[in-house]
Amino acid sequence: MGGNRGTMKYSLCNNWEFTEIWSDAFCTGAPVQCQAVRLPHTCRELPLHYADPADYEMVCGYRRTLTLPDAPRLFLRFDGAAHQAAVYLNGQLVGEHLGGYTAFALEITNFVHRDAENLLAVRLDTREDPALPPFGFVIDYLTYGGLYREVWLETTAATRVTDLFVHTPTLTEAAVSVTTEAPEKAAVLRVSLCAPDGAALVGQQLPAAAKAECTLTLPDAKPWDTDHPNLYTCRAELLDAAGQVLDCRETTFGFRTAEFKADGFYLNGKKTFLRGLNRHQSYPYIGYAAPESLQRNDARILKNELHCNAVRTSHYPQSQHFLDECDKLGLLVFTELPGWQHIGDAAWKDRACEILREMILQNRSHPSIILWGVRINESVDDDEFYKRTNKIAHELDPSRATSGVRYLEKSHLLEDVYAYNDFSHNGMNAGAKRKKDVTPDMGKALLISECNGHMYPTKPFDDAPHRQEHALRHARVLNAAYADGEHAGCFGWCMFDYATHKDFGSGDRICYHGVLDSFRNPKLAAAVYASQGGGKPILTVSSTMDIGDSPAGQLGTVYVFTNAERVDLYKNDVFVTTLHKSGWTALPHPPLAVDDTIGELLETQERFDKAKADTLRDCLLAAGKYGLAGLPLRYKFRLAWCMVRYKMSFDDGVKLYGKYVGNWGGAATRWRFDAKNGDTVVKSVTLCPSRKLHLEVTPSAHALREGDTYDMAAVRVRILDENGSPAAYAQLPLQFAASGAAALVGPSIATAEGGMGGTYIRTIGQTGTASLTVAAPQCEPVTVTFSVTGKENTAWN
Fold first, then answer.
1. Are 736 and 759 in contact (CB under 8 A)?
2. Please, what is the angle between helix 346-363 and helix 320-329, to 10°?
């Protein structure tokens, strides 16, 4: 894309050649067997299951030609090169970068041929080198490889703005720090705050200097928060004596304050509980190599579908596109330096500190970021090392708190916030540990950085009781963190299932820890998070109400997750009862228990008086819970008394049990759950034995854009019954066929898991229309169409 006046930024994502085997001849233009690729690119696409990390570990090469524009200074910027990059121009080494999760820039001004074609080549080592963070021991995620983010050419004047940092000490003040090169060639530095439309609102002129600072006040500034993410732009311009712009740099920011106190987190002075999930940046088949549209879509899923207000970027810095969308949506971010348990030698630590500097310098103007993670995830104490990392963070960004994720209780707290992976809940005990038992400093905030996850892995096709318990464990931990008033927030592990190394996950090397599957389809646990937010009505029932899905045919207690004021239950369209909260104390919208499926039916359908109905209902529900043979003695006595008192026979009792508890022998039982606000039904769910299936195909976008690089749509697929409920046991083959101006990414046939699956569509350099047809047995095929438009070419060649 184009820059502003003095600086221009051009995409270099198209027209690359790729080889899996690097050779010195490759960087000199020698004919080598290659394939044409576009960025973002993964060095090897992998299967969904049983992926072998050895398949993406290689020393590979990328190259393309450049005819360069006329500009005083030229820079290459790589947003993500996993994991060790050496950059060559015309056969000469320009520079190297170690670390796959932060961006880097290299000046090529003195390496280029101004009036001739130039050859750019990148030697990329994607292997897991123990000398480089996050490597050195085992890692619970795949690290993939490739030029998996964008590459840019930046052209500037001889004098330029190299860094622009904005933070807001108050809701009306913007503290601006500007760094420049060759400021003596400029006369003035002009700093302006601008509205979203670009109009300058307030500004100040300063003498041009290598570093300049000022504070600009905007009395009527609109604050940035999770509900109103108002964004502004700060512009720094170097001007010559005639007032002409020599160079310009802009960054977006928001007026917001973020403070962690002993009792929690405060956004703009308002106590705000951080309700979030951990996110990896991986995708099926393509690993890390997802373009802007998919990065932004993950942020939208977290905020708009899961109703989270926060996300942790486990366990490394993530895409600028993802962070930009968090800024736009009001999604709070806890981001951290790369690592997983292992701390290496002195050189390893030096590199970790350098990556930390890069992470902070590249991200510190994002209003969404509220916390820097300056420890290696789940590492032991290393005071000397972590004093360094804390100092780096506070010097580069005095406006934000630091933290570091640990599994240790009472470890050395050098940071501002104690982030603790609380995996203590086992389904039977308290949802979270008390603050006094975890942190050594009660005067600082406590944050649950992970919970659940490996404690209760759950596949989409696990049975209903397992899926329900998975959801309830998330609800219990959240409830406990809300309830005690001592936790600043809770980040569940994790957003979606992901591929991992052999030491973790299931036998297929998938960690089934997500509340979504790998394709971002919701498991039941997703409803726990989605139901905590307002707006779109949420109503999800934890069971299909089929007794054969439960041990001994006993449904037990079923739960409903909703953000509605109440839920009414109907059986065959006859009112049963209004569901109750069942002991939850703190969640904004607690699960509702379905532990009484008889309710008023004995009165309305059998015409029993209230006393008789109450006694029989208690006995019948107990029989449903314990079974007739296991009925506790007290219920046997009550049932016997009832039969004598009301002159009922044993057969009468059996018939009532079959009709109201067993629900067998007659027409199929139809259960309806109506979510209501007041007397208005805002959403309804009907559950009954299914006879017909259909496909639900949901693309992340219908409009795709060809331009600086390809575009993609993620396509989620679910198999539903005729009432729109997920068919969790429809393990059917899904067939995908693409045509037109886009191509399929991944296999053309895949198995629906838990009745869910997905695929991806990628543009292919053409404009027009594209279509994707999804088919499965027992379902009518579904065809989705896409429009593919072009973008004006802003490149110079």
1. yes
2. 40
Q: Based on the residue annotation, tell me whether 213 is a catalytic residue of this protein.
A: no
Residue 2 has pLDDT above 70, yes or no: no
Separation CA 754–CA 778 (nearest Å): 16
Q: How many Cα neighbours within 13 Å face the side chain of 777?
A: 8
**What are the Cα distances from residue 629, in Å, to 166, 190, 294, 487, 652?**
71, 84, 55, 46, 17
- From the centroid of its chain, how far is CA 257? 23
SS3 of 36, please? strand
* Residue 1: per-residue pLDDT: 35
Q: Active-site residue 259, yes or no?
A: no
What's the CA gap between 793 and 797, in Å, rounded?
9
Q: Of 378, 486, 706, 753, which is the active-site residue?
A: 378
Q: Which of 193, 81, 62 is nearest to 119 (CA)?
A: 62
Give yes or no for a contact between 541 and 555, defined as CB atoms under 8 angstroms apart.
Answer: no
C-alpha to C-alpha distance for 546 and 563, rounded to whole angstroms: 25
Of the CA atoms within 13 Å of residue 64, those in its CB half-sphere come to: 21
The residue assigned the tokens 């404690």 is 455
In sequence order, the 6+-apart residues with CB closer than 8 A to the CB of 60 are 18, 19, 20, 21, 22, 43, 124, 126, 145, 146
Spatial distance between the Cα atoms of 395 and 382, rounded to a whole number of angstroms: 20
Burial of 534: CB neighbours in 10 Å, binned 0-12, 13-18, 19+: exposed
Nearest to 794 by CA among 6, 9, 40, 5: 9
H-state helical runs in 423-537: 464-483, 526-530
User: What pTM, to 2 d.p., does this model score?
Assistant: 0.95
DSSP one-letter code for 359: H
pLDDT in tens, 785-797: 999 999 755 444 4
Catalytic-labelled residue, pool 128, 150, 292, 450: 450
The torsion angles phi and psi of 761, rounded to 5 degrees, stand at -120, 135
Q: Measure the CA–CA gap between 62 and 76, rounded to whole angstroms.
A: 14
Distance of alpha carbon 661 from alpha carbon 650, whole angstroms? 16
Nearest-10 crossing angle of helices 383-396, 346-363? 20
- String of DSSP letters for 366-391: -TTEEEEE-S-TTPPP-HHHHHHHHH
Query: Which tokens is 507 given?
Result: 């036998």
Q: Note the pLDDT of residue 642.
A: 83
**646 vs 278, more confident:** 278
Pair 112, 89: CB distance under 8 Å: yes
pLDDT of residue 796: 46
